[in-house]
Amino acid sequence: MTSPFHNDTMTNQVQVASAKEFSPGQRKLVFINGRSIVLFNIGGTYRAIDNSCPHNGASLAGGRLDGTVLQCPAHGLRFDLAKPSEPGRLCLHSFPVDEIDGKVMLQLDSADTP
Ligand code: FES
After folding, report:
1. I need a labelling partner for 81 at 20 to 30 A (CA). Which of 12, 58, 72, 92 fits?
2. Which atom of ligand 1 is closest in space to residue 58's alpha carbon?
3. Is 1 contained in some domain?
């Protein structure tokens, strides 16, 4: 089976969507190297996080989004996707995302390189 994602092993970047088909307001769940990652297009800005709440591991893919604030569907904790890590708080694991030549490219952690 071939992967639907294009990998650039030199930069650890993986294509996760086409910019044309991933409009503002959309979200997408992708599976890369055994990880479940949720991708958001918030008003044209891309955000990507592990699909696991840092509180108790619930899926965040179906969480309610209010602006850039995502609410975990399990116990209601709220996380600002514009500030995924804040000192003294539970932090989301986020991934850099860029649009390059019409492709939405997610930057994997070096440990996740295929
Ligand atoms: S698992 Fe997300 S708030 Fe508890």
Report:
1. 12
2. 1
3. no
Q: In what order do the strands lie in the sheet with 69-71?
A: 64-66, 69-71, 78-80
- What is the distance between the alpha carbons of residues 32 and 54, in angstroms, rounded to a whole number? 19
For ligand 1, residues with CB inside 6 Å are 53, 55-56, 58, 72, 74-75, 77
pLDDT at residue 92 is higher than 70: yes
**Could you tell me if 16 and 48 are in contact, meaning their C-beta atoms sit under 8 angstroms apart?**
yes
Give the CA count within 13 Å in the CB-facing half-sphere of 49.
Answer: 29
**Predicted pLDDT at 1:** 41
110 band by pLDDT with thresholds 50, 70 and 90: confident
The 10 Å CB-count burial string (b at 16+, else e) for 29-56 is: ebebeeeebbbbbbeeebbbbbbbbbee
